[in-house]
Design brief:
Elements lengths: L3 E6 L6 H6 L2 E4 L2 E3 L7 E2 L6 H11 L4 E3 L3 H12 L4 E6 L7 H12 L4 E5 L5 H15 L4 H11 L3 E7 L3 H5 L5 H9 L5 E5 L2 E6 L5 H15 L3 E10 L6 H9 L8 E5 L2 H7 L3 E8 L2
Parallel strand pairs: 1-2, 1-6, 6-7, 11-12
Antiparallel strand pairs: 3-4, 3-5, 8-9, 8-13, 9-10, 11-13
Length: 286
């Protein structure tokens, strides 16, 4: 059996430590700004703080772009040519064309030696699946077995986020000016959840931001008996006021601390949600 390489796109939001520990290859998606001809690569040619600064200076939300077919052909071919089999996943097909582009690249390079999995998710919702891929690889499964087992886990991923500011969603045309104004007036901090391959606002708690955070923690507690305890992510988009530590301390009452990982979102995810967004992500056992 060929050696296996696992490739994920930059929206998986795994830490450098986890990427290195589990020998995962990351390929970047694209970020751009209207009026700027530069094509930025997520986490390569632009950082999250540079993105926020530029977005605020221009008063526009960055645009994001998929990994294109020619890039993915090169991503896959370099490993297949070296005798590797490849498993790839990235941002969900309902959120980006990256998945469909990866299928086209697979057809061009090798359908036998490449598997492409639709995460139907974003951020460390993808990251959870990537770590499972690494686990199955290390257990000796081939790429087809890995892909099959991970596809069974896809609908069991729970990914939700508290959003502090709606200006990024508004500037990007993802919420109306009226919604933004009402949210500010009534101090609403939406909770968005990935449902059926889409990021959907499913709760609108009023009050301080910490109330929305507590709602996430309470949902985690309700799910606890059915959570895969191997890995739980706390992922945020920066500019936090200690909420990540607050969540960590609460989750540490239930989950071994070595299985709780705090990670930071990359530029693509931050382009859509803006600063001070935080989520708790895990896989359900049923």
């Amino acid at each position: 059996m060929n050696k296996i390489v696992i490739i994920a796109d930059s929206t998986c939001d795994l830490s450098e430590e986890l990427i290195k520990k589990h020998d995962i290859k990351i390929v970047p998606l694209h970020v751009s700004f209207k009026g700027d001809d530069t094509d930025y690569l997520d986490g390569v040619s632009i950082t999250r703080e540079e993105l926020y600064k530029k977005a605020d200076e221009l008063n526009i939300t960055p645009s994001t772009g998929a990994r294109n077919v020619s890039e993915l052909i090169e991503d896959f071919k370099q490993y297949v040519d070296q005798g590797y089999d490849v498993v790839f996943t990235g941002i969900g097909s309902g959120l980006s064309s990256t998945y469909n582009n990866a299928l086209l690249a697979r057809q061009e390079v090798s359908e036998e030696h490449i598997e492409v999995v639709d995460s139907q998710n974003l951020s460390t919702g993808i990251g959870l699946l990537v770590l499972k891929m690494a686990k199955f690889r290390d257990e000796g499964l081939n790429i087809h077995e890995i892909a099959s087992k991970v596809r069974e886990l896809v609908p069991l991923v729970s990914a939700k986020f508290c959003i502090d500011r709606l200006d990024y969603l508004h500037r990007g045309g993802r919420c109306s000016g009226m919604t933004k104004a009402l949210a500010e007036l009534f101090k609403i901090h939406p909770i968005a959840k990935v449902i059926n391959n889409k990021l959907t606002v499913y709760r609108m708690p009023r009050g301080k931001y910490i109330k929305a955070v507590d709602e996430q923690i309470n949902e985690f507690k309700k799910d606890f008996d059915h959570i895969d305890k191997d890995c739980v992510f706390i992922t945020h988009s920066g500019h936090m006021d200690g909420e990540e530590k607050y969540i960590y301390d609460e989750l540490a009452k239930y989950i071994p601390i070595e299985n709780i990982h705090i990670t930071e979102a990359g530029c693509v995810i931050c382009s859509h949600c803006g600063p001070k967004t935080i989520g708790i992500l895990y896989i359900l056992e049923k």
